[in-house]
């Protein structure tokens, strides 16, 4: 997180606001051609985890090879369309200064190649997560962070076009990560043995899951990359830069919660596969709470002291970055509650109504955003719409998933919502007056963030967890301290 925040600051300084915005909007166009990559990730993780949970290595090997072959075909298709239709869009539709068009096109090519490499690595990444090898997952996360730091350093001493150099070096980082995934899986996991497979039953199951999932990810891509393009069309690349910077903050902060949930996803699917509904529901409620808490511990001090933190972080703070960041963090907190619901739906495998109804609600973000921007509203209104629609979406998908598991609104309110509400209200009441008494110096700002995070943890331990959960944490810490 620290490396990500630091590199974003240096990157903005070295690239400039316009080039930083160009990099993000051009990357957004490329991502549109791989909007279903998360669908493939979900499918591979789901099927590999199910088979490993059943200890069926032969079937896991069939799934592994069939998915790898399919991803090779998909990567080839994406490369073709991205380098024809997508390239036309970059040349003819995006608002890019003429003198930066060549650099933007180079970055676009690098991004397309990076996307294809990432697609091929999905099955290897999914295998590592299915085996719950979180040490490897953490190692690669740290490597990517350090590598990005190295990229930014090379950017500071580069004598060539910095935007082109940055795009190429990021492609090299992606290549190294994907090669490591492949070599590690080939060496460690028995099911990762290459052979030609064309299994119609696996293909049918996978295509059904991916097909429904693709609708949802297409909607997500429209809302994310589409809204980014809308902002470019209405406000230019400077607002894209502001959105990208706020997204950097949100992404860095959200890594605590998302990485925690990555480790929870395999046992949640395995619990469903083994028919252990009691453990599944316990894990469902607890993972919902704790992923939100991890995000809230960081978000609360950041939202209160956002202006001070941005002035420390950035040499020049573009307009809207502060308010964009606050709204994106709020959006992230609502979104994190959906992760366990989505995992359960994947485990069940019945996505039809979840996708049709849920995506229908979520799709409202793009047309409503377009309408309010046409009416002349501020770009901030887009984020308000995203938070509101995402909240409605959460309520709708809860109702849908309750048809397949023993879930009720009352149970969810008691197990997740009420503890979260009590924790957030109490910690906010403590954090608000503390903000106004702390000095706005660098030391004062960091002291406030530390104290607020600490008091938030205390508030969560008081009202956000059960007595039994407190006892488990207390015993765990006691055992760790005694060993030392």
UniProtKB/TrEMBL annotation:
GO cellular component, one term: plasma membrane
Bilayer disposition of the protein: Multi-pass membrane protein
Location within or outside the cell: Cell membrane
Segments passing through the bilayer: 20-40, 68-89, 101-124, 136-157, 163-186, 290-314, 320-341, 353-373, 379-401, 413-436, 442-468
Keywords: Cell membrane, Membrane, Transmembrane, Transmembrane helix
Main location (coarse class): membrane
Protein's UniProt name: Lipopolysaccharide biosynthesis protein
Taxonomic source organism: Bacteroides muris (ex Afrizal et al. 2022)
């Amino acid at each position: 997180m620290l490396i990500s925040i630091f590199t974003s600051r240096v990157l903005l300084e070295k690239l400039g606001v316009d080039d930083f915005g160009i990099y993000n909007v051009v990357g957004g166009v490329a991502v549109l051609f791989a909007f279903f990559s998360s669908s493939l990730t979900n499918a591979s993780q789901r099927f590999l985890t199910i088979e490993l949970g059943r200890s069926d290595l032969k079937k896991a090997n069939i799934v592994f090879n069939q998915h790898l072959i399919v991803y090779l075909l998909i990567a080839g298709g994406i490369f073709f369309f991205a380098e024809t239709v997508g390239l036309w869009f970059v040349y003819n539709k995006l608002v890019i200064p003429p003198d930066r068009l060549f650099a933007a096109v180079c970055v676009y090519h690098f991004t397309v190649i990076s996307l294809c490499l990432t697609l091929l690595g999905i099955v290897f990444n999914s295998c590592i997560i299915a085996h719950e090898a979180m040490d490897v997952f953490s190692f690669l996360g740290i490597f990517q962070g350090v590598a990005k730091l190295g990229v930014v350093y090379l950017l500071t001493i580069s004598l060539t076009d910095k935007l082109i150099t940055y795009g190429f070096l990021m492609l090299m980082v992606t290549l190294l990560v994907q090669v490591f995934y492949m070599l590690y899986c080939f060496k460690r996991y028995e099911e990762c043995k290459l052979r030609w497979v064309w299994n119609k039953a696996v293909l049918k199951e996978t295509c059904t899951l991916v097909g429904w999932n693709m609708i949802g990810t297409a909607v997500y891509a429209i809302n994310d990359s589409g809204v980014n393009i809308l902002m470019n069309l209405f406000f230019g690349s400077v607002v894209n830069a502001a959105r990208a910077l706020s997204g950097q903050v949100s992404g860095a902060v959200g890594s605590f919660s998302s990485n925690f949930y990555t480790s929870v996803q395999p046992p949640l699917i395995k619990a469903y596969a083994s028919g252990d509904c009691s453990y599944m529901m316990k894990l469902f409620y607890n993972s919902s709470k704790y992923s939100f808490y991890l995000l809230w511990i960081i978000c609360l001090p950041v939202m209160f002291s956002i202006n001070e933190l941005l002035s420390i972080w950035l040499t020049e703070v573009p307009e809207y970055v502060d308010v964009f960041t606050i709204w994106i963090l709020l959006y992230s907190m609502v979104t994190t509650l959906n992760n366990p619901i989505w995992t359960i739906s994947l485990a069940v495998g019945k996505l039809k109504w979840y996708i049709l109804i849920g995506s229908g609600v979520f799709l409202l973000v793009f047309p409503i955003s377009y309408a309010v921007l046409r009416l002349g509203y501020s770009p901030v209104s887009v984020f308000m719409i995203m938070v509101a629609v995402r909240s409605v979406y959460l309520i709708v998908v809860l109702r849908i998933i309750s048809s397949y598991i023993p879930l009720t609104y009352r149970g969810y309110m008691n197990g997740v919502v009420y503890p979260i509400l009590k924790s957030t209200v109490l910690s906010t009441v403590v954090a608000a007056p503390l903000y106004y008494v702390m000095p706005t110096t660098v030391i004062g700002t960091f002291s406030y963030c530390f104290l607020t995070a600490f008091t938030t943890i205390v508030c969560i331990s008081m009202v956000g967890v059960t007595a039994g959960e407190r006892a488990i944490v207390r015993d765990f810490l006691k055992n760790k301290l005694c060993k030392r």
